[in-house]
Design brief:
With 366 residues, the protein is α+β, with helices and mostly antiparallel strands. It has helices at residues 2-26, 30-40, 51-70, 83-87, 103-109, 144-151, 155-158, 163-168, and strands spanning 118-123, 129-134, 138-143, 172-177, 183-188, 194-199, 203-208, 219-222, 227-232, 238-243, 249-252, 258-259, 272-277, 283-288, 293-297, 303-307, 316-321, 327-332, 336-341, 346-352. A hairpin with a 3-residue loop joins β18 and β19. The longest helix is centred in the first third of the chain and has 25 residues, at 2-26. The chain starts with a helix and ends in a 14-residue tail after the last strand.
């Protein structure tokens, strides 16, 4: 068996070498082709041909299509399929190549000044920008690369930089002032240079940060309760809003028209703590202080599934879909993180948090 495999491998390599020699002849590198032919001891002549180039192009195209297929949404089905997640293509670097950067240290070294604590933050889709919101009602948008680079420069090096250079490399690219009270949540638009923010002043604001001089919001949505969470539809045309009120709002981003679910009985009975769309936009998930997790149809806004008392009636802090839309990850004030399988409506795994410390006192993200 081993000899057969080795024989097949040698034959394939001989074909590969012949293709390389033919490609070199075709491209006009006769000397290289002759030298390679003598090195690999090619048994017969290799006429000029661009077949290798053609095969490479076909392979690259097929590889790209395969990656796109792997990241496509898969409808929930019966059984456990965690392999889908682990085999999906990812752009994340290898764990060993990560650099540890203290966020607060980076904030200090980049001279980003708030007059109050920073309460909210959000990255854009490609991770190049981060927005932070403060109790002082201001919002700052930062360039992540500049932020990390600036934090790595020692205080002695700073003195050597000219003021012009320093201003050019400053990570804060926009500072926005339009809220009257604490900024509670932030969300970047998935495709455009828009930033949505929610606040204790009961407003949702949309900023067009493509304009360098922007300070005020492009659009303002007035709500009746404190804004707690936001989530853009993957298309960017709609925005889900969760507030202190138990009813979830859906807004058209272009017209700011408000929609709510058709069945009042579907709604939570406590303030909304987190809301998130799936990657496909066909579903969204909500969590509440009432302890329930609800799965909603992304088109009709009808509740299609409920996990009652998901964390033993403790407040749900956060919920998020897996990339394939088959699972939901939640965290609660019972100090547990739970993985839910939607097709079977069950909790697959519970990860212990504080353990013997008991109930956690503050909200945490899963």
């Amino acid at each position: 068996m081993a000899n057969n495999v080795r024989g097949a491998s040698l034959k394939e390599r001989e074909i590969l070498y012949r293709l390389m020699i033919s490609q070199l002849f075709y491209d006009g590198y006769q000397t290289l082709a002759v030298n390679l032919s003598s090195l690999v001891k090619c048994s017969s002549g290799c006429p000029p041909s661009d077949r290798l180039l053609h095969l490479v192009n076909v392979g690259l195209k097929s590889e790209k299509e395969t990656k796109e297929t792997e990241t496509t949404f898969v409808e929930p089905s019966t059984g456990i399929d965690l392999d889908f997640e682990t085999e999906s293509a990812t752009n994340a670097p290898e764990p060993g190549s990560y650099e540890t950067v203290q966020f607060h240290q980076a904030i200090q070294s980049t001279t980003i000044v708030y007059t109050g604590p920073c309460r909210s933050g959000s990255f854009n889709n490609d991770g190049s920008l981060v927005a932070t919101g403060s109790v002082d009602a201001s919002i700052k948008i930062l360039d992540v690369e500049k932020m990390i680079a600036k934090s790595c420069i020692g205080s002695g090096d700073d003195s050597q930089l000219s003021q012009q250079n320093e201003a050019h490399n400053h990570p804060v690219i926009r500072t926005l002032y339009d809220h009257m009270e604490e900024v509670t949540c932030l969300q970047f638009h998935p495709t455009e240079q828009l930033l949505a923010s929610g606040s204790q002043d009961m407003t949702v604001k949309l900023y067009d940060f493509a304009k360098p001089s922007v300070k005020r919001a492009l659009k303002t949505i007035q709500e009746a309760s404190v804004i707690r969470c936001l989530s853009f539809h993957p298309s960017g045309d709609f925005l889900l809003v969760g507030t202190q009120h138990p009813v979830i709002r859906l807004y058209d981003v272009n017209t700011c028209q408000c929609f709510v679910g058709p069945n009042p009985g579907d709604q939570h009975i406590g303030p909304i703590t987190m809301i998130n769309y799936s990657n496909s936009g066909s579903m969204y998930v909500s969590a509440s202080k009432d302890g329930d997790i609800k799965i909603w149809d992304g088109v009709s806004s009808r509740c299609v599934n409920t996990f009652p008392r998901a964390h033993d009636s403790y407040e749900i802090c956060s919920v998020s879909f897996s990339r394939n839309g088959k699972y939901v990850l939640s965290s609660g004030k019972d100090s547990l993180v739970k993985l839910w399988e939607l097709s079977m409506s069950r909790c697959l795994i519970a990860y212990t948090g504080a353990g013997t410390a008991g109930k956690q006192l503050h909200r945490a993200q899963a």
